[in-house]
Amino acid sequence: MKKIVNVATPAVCAVALVLSVAAITKTNAATAPAPIVTSAPVPAGQPVDLTYAAEKALPSVVYIKSVQNSKIQTVEYSDPFEEFFSNPFGGFFGQGQGNNGRRQRQVQTPKRAAAGSGVIISADGYIVTNNHVVDGADELTVSLNEGSKEYSARVIGADKTTDLALIKIDGKNLPAIVIANSDNVKVGEWVLAVGNPLGLNNTVTAGIISAKARTLGANGVESFIQTDAAINQGNSGGALVNTRGELVGINAMLASPTGSNIGYGFAIPTAIMNKVVDDLKQYGNVQRAMIGIQGSDVKSYVDNQKDNGKDIDLGTMEGIYVAKVVEDGAAEAAGLKEGDVITTIDGKKVKQFGELQGILAKKRPGDKVTITYLRDKKSHNATLTLKNEQGNTKVVKNADTDVLGADFRPITEAQKKQLEINYGLEVIKVNGGKMKDAGVPKGFIIQRVNDIPMKSFDDLQNAVKEANNSKDQMLVIRGIFPTGKKGGFVVYLQNE
């Protein structure tokens, strides 16, 4: 369980948004998804029978156990007394070990296990869950409903920005859920949350949809379905289904001051899930379309201005206020300016920022959208060609350290002592690729990449992936030559 953000109101105690993955132990040691089906609402005044929905959904929801194995890690610690007594005059005469009293030691991390839920979306074994359920896992085990069968799973792809992940088990004729269009659900509609909360497998809770297009500041892209169906630790990645047992959302988190349910949970809509799943299967990562603005709901902006003693009249209280237009973005190319108010996209009204994010999350770079916006209270129309995070419309491919064309290893204790450094990755071979293009030689010790310390190979992998998804697509490498001379290189990762 991890707290994401704290929210406080004058009349209510602080509320924490909590990822609903359950910790279990801490010891020392491709086919397309099911077609979208629109659900029919229950006629007004009719009693709601949820047994059919439960019977349909339960077989498709699985239990996921995630294990992080015990590892040996090198950590730094400070011991100023040891530094002083070993060299009491170092501070006066410029002597000493150059580590400012810092020492290193190796520690063994405990083996950790956690549990969550997942939803089978195809008969051949594709399962959707939350990114935070599988993040960092060395082993994933999937158990079918009622523990009838157990499988090892592999991660096909994961997206931290939407908190979604796609995993795969080797199975046949599995009970895939029917996927409904979450855009068609309505506030007040009955839903079931299906999952494995608090170690209680195959649990169903009922409630209604409390709100749509919620933004909470927990993920990068948010347009949550809010429900009062009870969601607790272990529900993460489970199913939110309508009265026909069709999937409308993937349960992700709860709002609580205690970490347990007090009335509200949040699910990722299937309209976003379908796009993420398709991208992960086709490209290995999510092709994210950007409109190229920073802003907020008009009402929030106006209320904020009034709190600061300013009287603002934008001609509407609904829409998205454009606080900044990003350079070289889609909005700038279409002529939008700071102070404009976007009121519709493709003919659909947008009142909240979550609605805007929900629409864009279903688009890809290169897609065109038509918007209506107000400037000086006058209505205008524009067509935008959406761009990716790098400012163009190309497919963003996954990059890993293979693109660098080099081999690396953590520096030895002898190198640390000789060069008076605590960490680094030595370039032991340059085969070609981006490292050769940048002139990085064999023997160079990389200490920082884009100002991130390189203490392990995982640090380098993460730096490459993050840089590849940035606009600049480059690595600023700083380190030290075997002679002790410091140096640096710039490695460009642009796709051809």
The DSSP helix count reads 11
The portion of residues forming beta strands comes to 35-45%
User: Total strand count, please?
Assistant: 32
Residues in helix, %: 10-25%
Query: Largest sheet at a glance?
Result: 8 strands, antiparallel
Low-confidence stretches: 1-15, 25-39, 91-98
- How far apart are the termini? 41 Å
Class computed from helices, strands and strand pairing: alpha+beta
| Mean pLDDT over the full residue set | 84
> Given the C-alpha coordinates, what overall shape results?
globular
CA radius of gyration is 26 Å
What does this 3D model show about the protein?
This protein has 496 residues and is α+β, with helices and mostly antiparallel strands. The protein is built from 11 helices and 32 strands. The strands form 6 sheets. Strands 3, 5, 8, 9, 10, 11, 12 and 13 form an 8-stranded antiparallel sheet that branches. Strand 18 and strand 19 form a beta hairpin. The N terminus is likely disordered.
